What does this fold into?
Amino acid sequence: MFQAEPTSNPQIEVENPYKALADAIRRGAKMTAQCKAVYYERHSFTKPVSATCAIGAAGLGIGLDPSLIGFTLKMMRAFPMIDSLFMRITAMNDYQGLSREAIADWVQSLGE
It folds into this structure.
């Protein structure tokens, strides 16, 4: 069953957006297992997301569902600087095998 996402579009307005992104990754990482090569894994459309990559975890961490259309655009609106970090975060998650918490630590260090 299709579930519409709230129409609000989160915009993270904080002094340190890198820390905000890192905190969102950490919150989302506590909610699911880690996956690679996709934003999320789900065992069926009737079940919640069961695993996320670092970007998917960040979305969950601010209340977005990574399985819904428009997820990437909403993430870019919430964290405008994510566009410049996307490839590096993906490589750390998918190819280097870093935990989402380690990726969050790296992201946070960019704003220090």
In short: Strands lie at 33-34, 40-41, 51-52.
